[in-house]
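User
Please review the sequence:
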Amino acid sequence: MSGTIYTASDLSTDRSLTPEVCVIGSGAGGAVLAAGLAEAGIKTILLEEGGYHTKSDFDMDEARAYPMLYQDRGTRVTADAAITILQGRSVGGGTTVNWTTCFRTPDRILEHWESVHRVEGLSPESLRPHFEAVESRLGIGEWPVELANANNRKLLEGCRAMGWEVESLRRNVRGCANSGFCGVGCPFDAKQGMHLSYIQDGLAAGMDLYANTRATLLETGGGKVTRVHAQVLDPDSDGAGGGRIILTPKVVVVSGGAINSPVLLLKSGINPGGRVGFRTLLHPVVALPAIYDEEIAGFYGAPQSIASHHFSDRGQDKIGFFLEVPPLQPMLAASGLSIFGRGQTEFMRQLPHVGCTIAISIDGLHPQSPGGVVSVRRDGRPKVDYPVGPLLQEAMREAHVQMARLQLAAGAREIYSLHPEQVSIRSESDIAALKAAPYGALQHNIFTAHQMGGCAMGGDPESSVVDPEHRVRGMHNLFVVDGSVFPTALGVNPSETIYAMSHRAREFVGNAI
């Protein structure tokens, strides 16, 4: 018997539900898990505070997509406003708006988790069948280099000219039209986001999906969650817009992502060891746009198809970073600039000739770079504090220098930094000015599209929130299954690691019923 999709219009009155498992959050973590439980015959309900949208809603209009598909209507930032946080919010979560890049977890990261954080059972060998399963279901495969757009090809050409490591990427697509609008919802149903794949699997197996439904409190007693309280939201205002729902499940899984999952636990008074919200990791991103004589048209074509991990491991005393490119649709490009007025107008006039490289810092691997902290504001909203300390500042400076060298090698005519007082680079001799520029919070634009940590997994009860089987310390029937459990950042795009770990977690959650 197929399950049912409920949206705000269906949920005007209060109701009580008694599933065996309640999964909170429908992104890469919750969807894979919920589908597996439903297919195992377990009565499962999936809650999602965002709306349910299909390709008919994805009209490639940025002004409509960001409020509809992103947290805080696309305006989420850290507490000091230094870091812009791009985070999905709809049925499918971040998988509806991510740029499709898929990596298996690097072996060195898994080794670090085991040796430093005592995470057992996550070796490359033990994860292999889970990676293989999700790769098959989601069509994850290498994107042909000959289909790379000019923005990605500039990264490829620059790396080859510099003699740096570079590779083509794998993407979770089927029948991709190479439109480039992945970040605002795929209008062709080519990107295999959760709303098209695992959520449909779960529905076919009898899972019920409640969209526009925010879990507000986990009621606890006797070392377990006894009830889940949820509020139906008005899709237009995000305020209370319907009935209240109370669920009485046997097992609860929190899969709200690296910011919302810690917030829900904290609101519910669940904070084992006082560690919930700590070690929040952002893969902080800095960008460097460049203007080329030839047309780049970075707003078309697969957003990411080339990457370089040449600088991922810079030794134990420095933070590594890896290089990719972003899409360059007008709204995203304009909002990423630190210039206004005539300067912005002139830059946007040249947008068809703009390429851009991003450097993604690998945080959380060094004791001096422990990440940030998620807490709860007085009004209940998330608060993200993230210090950009000396190690990150050094990494961002070095990333700027290396990106500029790469872009010059790829034929850039002029390169602009995203400082309030822009640094212009036309030749190697100008890089000295880039080195001398200030780096850190509010000194230049910083972004994040990869939120991790906050409910760290580990073998030590004193320093971890969940054990290696995703169970929350001290709670018999509560699990966290999403990127918030990562003890460190990954050094690669995180979606496939979340898919695989969630596929693995099916066994542990199922056994708890």
